[in-house]
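Hi L.,

You mentioned the student needs an example of a multi-chain input paired with its predicted structure. This one should do, with 971 residues in total across all chains.
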Amino acid sequence: MHHTLPTALILQALERGYRHGFDIMDATGLPSGTVYPALRRLEKEGLVTARWEQEDAAHADNRPARRYYELNEFGEEFLSEARGKFRMLSRAIPPKPKARTSRA
Amino acid sequence: MLSLTVVRLASFLVPRGVRAEWRQEWEAEIGWRADKLRAWGRWSPAGRLQLTIRSLGSIADAAWLRMEDLRQGIFADLRLGARLLRKHAALSAVSVTALAAGIALNTSLFAVVDGLLWQNPPVRDPGRFAALYTSDSSGPLFGNSSLPDFHDLVTGAQSWEYLAAFQTIAQAVEANGEIERLEVTSFTGPYFEATGIAAHAGRLPAAGSEVLIGYSFWQRRFGGAPSAIGAGISFAGRGFTISGIAPSGFTGVSLEEQPQVWLPMTIPENAFRGNRRYDIIGLRKPGVTLAAAQSELSVIAARLYTAHPAEWRDRFGKGRSLTAVPAREARFDPAARSNVTGISLFALALAAIVQLLLCANVAGVLLARAQTRRKEIAVRLALGAARFRLVRQLIAESALLGLLGGALGILLAWWALPVLRTAPAWFGGPEVVSIAIHGRAIAFALGLVLITSAIAGVLPALGVFGPDLMASLKDDYSGRGFRSARSRWGGSLVAAQFAASLVLLVVAALLGRSLLRMQNVEPGFHPGNQTVARVEVALPHRQPENWKRWAGPNLERLRALPGVENAAIAWRIPLAQAFPRRSYAVEGHRYGPQEERQIFLQAATAGYLATMGIPLRLGRDFDPAEVERGAGGLLVNEAFARHYWPGQDPIGKRLEGPPGQFRPVIGVFGNWKFRALTQGDLPMVIAPLEHNPTADVTVHIRGPNLPRREDLAAALHNARIFSTVDFHQVMRDALRPARLSTIALLAFSGLALALSAIGVFGVVAQTVAQSRREIAVRAALGATRSDVLRAVLGGGIRLLAAGLVIGLPASYGAARLLEGWLFGVRALDPPSIAAAAAVLILVGLAAMWLPARRAAAVDPAAVLRYQ
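Structure written out for the whole complex:
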């Protein structure tokens, strides 16, 4: 897999705690047509792990369960390589505010 | 919500296995965001629009998943296909070989046609290159030009950067101690600049005594040695110095002449305006289109007509024209080109039919193989597998077969290249060294592979997914009776094969009958006991005053040879060399506006008619003494006499050759075939050779014991023999193109017949295998052997009948296309059609009979007990 800027931005957003597709779009500013295929590719390459949130939590809020993505160790390694290429990467995306992660 | 509709529609793109999960992910995200927007008080039209735009990303996401799935699926299908091919290795090998043979045949033929018709000549800038023609007196646009006209063109035309004129003549060329007959191009003007040719070694010829020689001649005669440059070379009685070597593959612009020597021309004395025997080539200035150059040429032609009306008026009383044709069309005389195009396309069409037949057989094999998997396929469908995926698997198998066959076929065609390059020459065309398996030919082969694979894969798929697929889930598969899906699809393939075989058989029969007619043509002369030698007369004897001293004594010596009855010298060998036409005006004849003035001319010594065995009908032969005085008349044939003087005595009538020169007719000879065995009775004049001397003559000898070449050489003084040939050989060579086409068509139709026989054998054998139980029941109920045979054969006979019904009109259509090349046979030729149909029916019935016999031998007790 190549270190493209969109891929690097998505990994960086995941590392900053943005775990859902739409949140990643908000954080990176990338369009949905880029973010989702990139996530699928990252998942297929084994850099990102996807899981479904607990059904109970979703039921409690009266909504369907969401799928979330997490960086695994290969992803982290890949991200650190990408940081070598894109120097400003770690400053590009701010950490996710605490208040909004609580319900994820 | 619109965004949810977008996601729902996009979900149809997502592979079925992950669709539900995918949809849930997107719907959960959209729902979550909608809740948020409401909570933030931003559930406005703008907010909803933003959400909808975001949902459009689901289409890209779904498409990506689908592509990924396809990619993996295709690899899996190919792996499965490869496994199946390996499992049935022998059958696969046969199919691949058959496809390879077909693709090799088609690709080779395409490469040959491409080399003849679609390649540019070996010039540097084909886009700007053109050949220029002056129209003939009798109308055709593409005639030769004269040197004075060429010079007027050079000074008058602004469109051309370079213009050159040239003439190519066969000469006896002596170099490095050996003599060889080669075509020599002498040119005036910037010939090498127009073609963009630079010397491979040495330099281009400058002075009048330097020549450039061809690469292949250099290799052959000098072994490619650099010392050839500066070496001597002689022809036409003169010595020259080799200044350089032409690049490999350059043999002039036209395919019809393939010179190996080029030299600057010394302008001949007879270069008057009416003497049109030169070719003109040119390179347009950059930016000038062919159309612009052409309109300028038309203006110049009109100007030349005004200035020189005598030489520029054609026989319809109009001005002649100048025409430029693009580089690609300059490879052939444009008049011959349409004929070559017709033959080429016809050959390609026949090869395509063979390929279709092969396709049908491979489809039959795959269909049979797929049938054995029907149960498996039905189970998988019942378990929810996508029909599309199963079809793809079947196509993957045929695609693999096609690709393997294609690769092998291209290799075969490439391997056959040296043969292909000489192939046009067998049919009387040129040798084309530029024939190659290059981009276009490979693209053609790949296209064939694609079509072949599609046909061979889709048909079995259609057959497998027939309406009774689910019936195969029932255990009783083997007892489905005489008509099955297999027979229906396999059957239409076989019927198509029968039809195509009939087309090829009819064409072969027509060509064969046409060939027989040609062989039985009465040529109007006696080819037996005759030999003919091509001879070059030594230079000093070519002058008219020396000629008399050369011909007379040589003929006396030849006639004195033991076993020789008669001998004569003439210009050309009938049926082997082209005869020139000269303008003759019949005194007192009122010419119609369309009437031909150009008459075929042979020049010969006294005794030519007797030596050839052409009957003298009226009058007498040339008198050598009279001819020597410069007097004497002309001989004309019966067709000539009948045309100009019907019902009159032609002896003593006069013909005007060059203006003001009248000659009387002294004899009338029988019509004979000199151009082709298929020609009609064309008017011809024979003039005394002594009045028309040339360097290149033919010596005809008749007698019960023909002399050997050494004896001939000893008797002929001041001359050199190139070749001697028996006249029977001349006759055989004249029939060679017809014979080769017939053999090729017989081979094609034999192959087609074998393929359809195999096809119908398979259909009937399968019917028998699948209806053993029904046969047994019928036999047990008292059906006789012939009842069973009739039931089993019925299907095969229906296919044969269908093949005949489709094939008969199709073969008439093919025969109509062929009509121009047939001789003495019409397109609708009942004996040919009957013979072709009879062969097809016999072979078809024989192929059905073999498996059907097994059905009749079924033992009802054994079969019923077993089942």
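You could point out the following to them. Chain A touches chain B through 19 residues (CB under 8 Å). Chain A has one domain: 5-89.

Best wishes,
N.
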